[in-house]
Amino acid sequence: MAASPAKAETITTGPIASREDMEVIPAEPLVAAVPNGSVKTDIPESEERKFEDVYNVLVRKKSALQKIYEREYELDKKLEGRVVFEIVIAPNGKISSIEVDSNTLESPTLEQEFIDFLKSNVAFPAKEVEDFKITYPVDFLPPH
User: Fold this and answer.
1) Alpha-carbon torsion (124, 129, 130, 136), positive or negative
2) What gap in Å lies between CA 112 and CA 103, rounded to an integer?
3) What is the pLDDT of residues 6-28, one digit of tens each?
């Protein structure tokens, strides 16, 4: 009996990025049937990449993304909106890919600055896990 595929989890909080808007698409661990009919994963629970751990790391970087935005906002007072990142974290803890799912800021230059910043400044602990994909929305509003 195979395990059913994991469902994506959606969660939101905060003014810059709503945690309810974050979608986690967990990688499916390798599974095996055991004699009592239960399912056993090849990945020990302690080695799983947890949503909360990833979320906490990304939240700590929100203020830096906001500073990048505010610098550009000083040059263009019309900049305001949301960027939704699709981030894949490799087993070694590095971001293996970042794509922008949507961007209402309409600033390709700023979008690339965000991507470059995240790739070079965000890392996670290495774990013996599959790639971990997360959707990470960030709202950028003018400073008050």
Assistant:
1) negative
2) 11
3) 444 444 444 444 455 555 444 44
**Per-residue tokens: 13:** 């909080």
Predicted TM-score (pTM) of this structure: 0.67
The Cα–Cα gap between 75 and 142 comes to 12
- List the structure tokens of 125: 């602990």
Assess contact for 17 and 64: CB atoms under 8 A: no
- Report all structural domains of the chain as residue ranges with CATH numbers, in order of start: 9-140 (3.30.1150)
| CA–CA gap between residue 27 and residue 43 (Å, rounded) | 11
Taken as a whole, the chain contains a residue count of 144
* Chain segment 36-90, per-residue pLDDT in tens: 444 444 444 457 899 999 989 999 999 999 999 999 999 999 999 999 999 999 9
Categorise residue 37: left if φ over 0, alpha if ψ from -120 to 50, beta otherwise: left
Residue 27 phi, psi dihedral angles, 5° rounding: -70, 145
- Scanning 22-107, the segments in alpha helix (DSSP H) are 51-73
Give the C-alpha separation, 127 to 26, whole Å.
Answer: 14
